[in-house]
Design brief:
Elements (H helix, E strand, L loop, with lengths): L2 H26 L3 H4 L10
Length: 45
């Protein structure tokens, strides 16, 4: 593999892992009441 291939591989992996960790941390910082919401009753009777 050429040098630019290794550079592209490194940049791609860094972006993917960075985005994954950022999203995971963002979800973990949500307050519990925003994650588990009460189901609404949609019965028409």
């Amino acid at each position: 593999m050429t040098f630019m291939g290794w550079v592209f591989l490194g940049v791609s992996l860094t972006c993917v892992w960075g985005l994954t960790i950022w999203c995971y941390a963002k979800v973990l910082r949500l307050p519990p009441e925003e994650i588990a919401q009460e189901p609404q009753d949609f019965s028409s009777a």
